[in-house]
Amino acid sequence: xxxxxxxxxxxxxxxxxxxxxxxxxxxxxxxxxxxxxxxxxxxxxxxxxxxxxxxxxxxxxxxxxxxxxxxxxxxxxxxxxxxxxxxxxxxxxxxxxxxxxxxxxxxxxxxxxxxxxxxxxxxxxxxx
Length: 128
Hints:
The protein folds into 2 domains: 1-32, no CATH class; 64-127, Arc Repressor Mutant, subunit A (Orthogonal Bundle). 48% of the residues lie in helices and 6% in strands. It contains 6 helices and 3 strands.
């Protein structure tokens, strides 16, 4: 079985083009065949008219708060004795989805869910 070796000149001969003598024009022609012209359209779709669903928006606001509470609860339950210091919560706030000092505000906003107490020996605020 014979193998054919393709060079730019043999490719041009098989395509019935006249051979180009200068390498610069050869590379220019090959580059033009390999590249595509830039598209005039963008990937951003046009702005569509949307109707706002206020019931769904209210549901999503409640859902966001519940999701944060559940992440918070999972974090507390993974700790030994199911309690965590409030200062350590600021360090782990990114893992829950809070900004750095937003955790304390969140705990104070929902006192019926979280219990804040002071450790009797260490005098550090804990949450469970």
